[in-house]
């Protein structure tokens, strides 16, 4: 996301409130969102089936054993599409959004602002995916046990800490990735507005070489992402490649999570993640433009 676009989004977030938990449409700047205005709902059966067939066809053309899971939620209507939402994948660096959220919650629980030292850890952890910073943050939230407690607090029902107390080996599902994204990008969140705005800023200004992934399904200058990628010895060197974030497509606001593994290399995984995100978002967006669909909500 460009700096001006990030500033515009942050201004809307702090001044008007953010969309409610994939339920309330954000109004124009200065107009409050209404919690629960649009309850979560599934797309029409034919729409979901069509997107699923398209994704099945894509995966069928990949190497045997490759897995892909996708979850997309349009914030204005609450419409959500899931593809293999219950399959678990290793998070790699995508879990760093969780660590960011949990350290900010720790500061809130202690009735204080983030310290300069904490910000000096969080900024490179998200923007540059600094692993040393992530290890320090993981320790500060209490390691695996602290993460387990924090995940329960966030409502993550299918996420579990990694083996050997290593944050990068955390296992999760796309359904839980969307729950984490909602803590950042909706007002139905335990985070304060200030902390949500800080998370949006960091995810909107990741290093250019890490801005790939779900951003391909929308306007790259109006996207916030955090990705994860790792060559896994447990999978004979094959790659797990993940992308999560918030995008704008046709003036609609989407939360998107794609998890995948068993790729022969990182580049192949990135290409598939971007393709799957685009297929799911395009399919859902076309359905929302059909007869009787609600008009896109105002841009932030």
From TrEMBL:
Region Disordered, residue ranges: 21-47
Signal peptide positions on this chain: 1-24
Annotated keywords: Hydrolase, Signal
InterPro entries: Beta-lactam/transpept-like (IPR012338), Beta-lactam_cat (IPR045155), Beta-lactam_class-A (IPR000871)
Residue intervals of the Beta-lactamase class A catalytic domain: 119-211
Taxonomic lineage: Bacteria, Bacillati, Actinomycetota, Actinomycetes, Streptosporangiales
Domain of life: Bacteria
One GO MF term attached to the UniProt entry: hydrolase activity
Biological source species: Nocardiopsis mangrovi
Protein name listed in UniProt: Serine hydrolase
